[in-house]
């Protein structure tokens, strides 16, 4: 452990309406009862972070961004048990869930309307340290390195989706959208026993499609003919068993519904930027489709995600490009421009290196 320090660097949004971030020197967090302070190892930039900057997602500034992170326990608050200084951990972003509403009492605290997650409701992980509730932590297995641990949160979102709509053993799964969530969906569906997995994307996502192909995934360019027609042709006119939609685009939703077999399932993970999008309602009825919408990450998905990493069933590290916290502007620009698949910030003081695992 490093010596005591009363200040640290943190990447913060100062006020609503100010579409900018600032790397500030701020007071370091202190452990309070039931909470712990972590030294942040890696923190991932999510599409939600871009929306927070642009005031397109709720936040409570001034606030330090970053809700996807792993770290090492630095300080234990009063009453915290079963953890030790130096433990490597990841943290569910469901802080301040009320524990009293019908969702919390059903075990769905991740959907609680009262929660204020790190990164938008309270200070998050784009900083050298972060304070988190101890009950939200999960231990990182020894076999899982820090970079992989820094990607557990998006993997947990994927696992939650497959809790809602399980992968059919030996079945055909189509994933639409080759972003980080889409690629992780395809990798996880493969690990979960799908017979065939297809990842569909556009030419504008060439970097991501190329990486997916390098990882051994079957990739379809949506510009090369009608996706639904191709799906039926490749399944001997049966259709897809499970479609996972991760893009939020209206055209992709229509492609997904059109690709389903009758009584097929569709899981929606993509968040649309529009308040309404046209849906081929009659087609969905004709397919007798089951459509589920999956949001955030369940408690059980975190241990499951860590177990997948520990046995090497899913390896997310090729998705990551690491930037020091001081290069946050380049990391955000690369995320916006899709120049990287997943940017991780490493809040190491005075770091000047950048690496791709």
From TrEMBL:
Cofactor(s) for this UniProt protein: Zn(2+)
Record keyword Oxidoreductase present: yes
Segments crossing the lipid bilayer: none
Keyword line: Metal-binding, Oxidoreductase, Zinc
Residue ranges annotated for the Enoyl reductase (ER) domain, each copy included: 17-345
A Pfam family of this chain: ADH_zinc_N
Superkingdom assignment: Bacteria
Entry similarity comment: Belongs to the zinc-containing alcohol dehydrogenase family.
Cross-referenced PANTHER family: L-THREONINE 3-DEHYDROGENASE
Name the record gives this protein: Alcohol dehydrogenase catalytic domain-containing protein
Organism: Pseudonocardia charpentierae
């Amino acid at each position: 452990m490093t010596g005591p320090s009363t200040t640290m660097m943190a990447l913060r949004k100062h006020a609503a309406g100010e579409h900018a971030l600032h790397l500030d020197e701020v007071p370091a967090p202190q452990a309070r009862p039931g909470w712990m302070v972590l030294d942040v190892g890696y923190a991932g930039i999510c599409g939600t972070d871009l929306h927070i900057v642009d005031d397109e997602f709720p936040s409570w500034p001034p606030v330090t961004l970053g809700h996807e992170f792993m770290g090492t326990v630095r300080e234990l608050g009063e009453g915290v048990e079963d953890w030790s200084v130096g433990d490597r951990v990841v943290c569910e972003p469901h802080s301040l869930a009320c524990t009293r509403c019908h969702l919390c009492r059903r075990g769905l605290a991740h959907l609680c309307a009262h929660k204020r997650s790190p990164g938008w409701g309270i200070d998050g992980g784009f900083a050298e340290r972060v304070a988190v509730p101890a009950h939200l932590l999960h231990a990182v297995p020894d076999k899982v390195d820090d970079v992989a641990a820094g990607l557990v949160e998006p993997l947990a979102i994927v696992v939650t989706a497959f809790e809602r709509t399980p992968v059919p053993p030996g079945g055909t799964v189509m994933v639409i959208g080759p972003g980080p969530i889409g690629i992780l969906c395809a990798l996880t569906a493969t690990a979960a026993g799908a017979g065939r997995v297809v990842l569909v994307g556009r030419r504008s996502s060439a970097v991501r499609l190329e990486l997916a192909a390098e990882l051994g995934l079957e990739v379809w360019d949506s510009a090369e003919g009608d996706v639904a027609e191709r799906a039926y042709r490749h399944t001997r006119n049966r259709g897809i068993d499970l479609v996972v939609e991760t893009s939020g685009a209206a055209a992709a939703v229509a492609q997904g519904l059109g690709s389903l077999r009758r009584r097929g399932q569709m899981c929606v993970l993509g968040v649309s930027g529009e308040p309404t999008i046209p849906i081929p309602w009659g087609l969905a009825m004709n397919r007798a489709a089951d459509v589920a919408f999956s949001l955030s990450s369940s408690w059980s998905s975190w241990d499951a995600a860590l177990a997948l990493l520990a046995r090497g069933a899913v390896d997310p590290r090729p998705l990551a490009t690491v930037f020091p916290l001081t290069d946050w502007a380049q990391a955000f620009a690369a995320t916006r421009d899709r120049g990287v698949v997943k940017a991780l910030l490493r809040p190491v003081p005075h770091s000047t290196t950048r690496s791709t695992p």
